[in-house]
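Assess the record.
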Amino acid sequence: MLNLLFKKQIRIELLIEDYLGALEQTQNNFRQAMNSCIDDSVCHKFESKADDIRDEIKAMMYGNALIPDSRGDNW
């Protein structure tokens, strides 16, 4: 009986250590993510790419549309 109690205690301690390790990894990943977002050159690169894709979508939807009523250049 006493042996069973200590096995549970050891198992709980190991689980707590695993939990704290996972929490530490999460904190490190969050810190890296925040640092990369703060880095203006990285953010600008992705923002610029998103803007280019958005502009291409708009051009395809409005400029090359087959239905004249939905085109943005018929004003």
